[in-house]
Write a structure and sequence with these properties.
It is a single chain. The protein is of the alpha+beta class and 148 residues long. It has three helices and six strands; from the N terminus they run αββαβββαβ. Strand 1 and strand 2 form a beta hairpin. The longest helix is centred in the first third of the chain and has 30 residues. It starts with 6 loop residues before the first helix and ends in an 8-residue tail after the last strand. The N terminus is likely disordered.
């Protein structure tokens, strides 16, 4: 079987190649523009307040873009309502991240909080810090508890 090459076939291949190149360039431009777009909440600072009572094991938390003071007050009220009384104290404020509180089984006085970009990493870090512990609470400042 023989193939006939002529100027018309070469021109058609050249046109197809030019069109394919333009499509690839246009696709790259669109993908670049979409990839460069920031999420709507990217400029917003979010917080996670964790309050805990080592004496009773009561805890509270609050997250979002409210002021840290408002979140602290909300978390403190939760802790006190759970029986923490005056022993509730702010452990940490995480900013634009996730946090976890690990408590040792049978010993409320042994605890740790750790933060990370996502809940899984925060949980793992907190558990590693306190042997024989469990995660008492784990959340993200953004309210998106899976990502943070």
């Amino acid at each position: 079987m023989s193939t006939i090459h002529n100027a018309h076939n070469r021109q058609r291949r050249s046109t197809k190649a030019a069109v394919a190149t333009m499509l690839v360039a246009a696709g790259a431009a669109v993908a670049g523009a979409l990839g460069a777009a920031a999420p709507a909440h990217a400029d917003e600072t979010t917080y996670l307040a964790i309050v805990y009572s080592p004496a009773t094991g009561a805890y509270g938390w609050a997250n979002g873009a409210d002021s840290p003071a408002d979140l602290y007050n909300y978390a403190m009220t939760q802790c006190q309502n759970r029986g923490g009384g005056t022993d509730c104290r702010l452990l940490v404020d995480f900013v634009n991240s996730c946090g976890a509180l690990a408590v040792q089984v049978g010993n409320h006085d042994r605890y740790a909080t750790r933060g990370a970009p996502n809940r899984l990493q925060a949980d793992f870090s907190a558990l590693r810090e306190v042997p024989g512990s469990y995660i008492l609470m784990s959340h993200c400042s953004t309210g998106n508890d899976g990502i943070g």
